[in-house]
From TrEMBL:
PANTHER family: TRANSCRIPTIONAL REGULATOR MRAZ. One of its GO terms (biological process) is negative regulation of DNA-templated transcription initiation. Transmembrane segments: none annotated. Belongs to the MraZ family. Forms oligomers. The gene is mraZ. GO terms for cellular component: cytoplasm; nucleoid. This is Transcriptional regulator MraZ.
């Protein structure tokens, strides 16, 4: 698994093209293999999956029994809006109109690292997500999530 680091603010043009920052591009594994762009499961943003990471996830999803109704529904919803995308020779990523609409992306967007993938947010929605008053205190969340992990390794 590749770890991607950073948060990058960019502008998107009227055709849905965004210039991927050079410092982010350098971190992306095997750019020539392409990417998968999809809707996020939990947030109003997009997820950019390097093909290597996507293939690992597809291996996991293939293990689900498609004749289980919940599995079938999950797979359909998880795959909704999925697009194969590439970074062109000019360093731009083209985001399809339906995905732009789903994520509420206007002129400014944010690429935000999420371990092996990248989230793509409308800038205002991203900033709002960081200060969501309905969420628990981040310190409490960190304790709940991280306190059971062994750091001895």
């Amino acid at each position: 698994m590749t770890s991607i680091i950073g948060t990058y603010e960019c502008k998107i043009d009227t055709k849905g093209r965004v210039l991927v920052p050079a410092s982010l591009k350098k971190q992306l594994p095997a750019i020539a293999d392409g990417f998968v762009l999809k809707r996020s499961v939990f947030e109003t943003c997009l997820e950019l999956w390097p093909m290597q990471e996507w293939n690992v996830m597809m291996g996991k999803l293939k293990k689900l029994n498609p004749f289980d109704k919940k599995n079938d529904k999950f797979i359909r919803r998880f795959m909704a809006g999925v697009k194969n995308v590439e970074i062109d020779d000019a360093g731009r990523l083209l985001i399809a109109k339906d995905l732009i609409e789903f994520a509420g992306i206007n002129k400014e967007l944010v690429f935000s690292s999420k371990i092996g993938i990248i989230e793509i947010w409308d800038k205002k929605l991203y900033e709002a997500s960081l200060i969501d008053e309905d969420d628990d205190d981040f310190g409490e969340l960190a304790q709940d999530v991280m306190s059971n992990i062994s750091f001895d390794e």
